Amino acid sequence: MIFCCETHTDRALDDAIEETGTFPVFSVVMGEELSTVCNFCEENAVYKIEE
Known about the structure:
Elements: E1 2-4, H1 9-20, E2 25-28, E3 47-50
Antiparallel strand pairs: 1-3, 2-3
């Protein structure tokens, strides 16, 4: 699973597609995951991408 801020959404999607070869499930971070940081910077994650 990849967590990303709004700035790194494109990069996260590209990485997920490159890794799996298919379009991943893309959703908004909710609940306990709200304190999770982006995999590419220190901002709070807004989206999660499930491969």
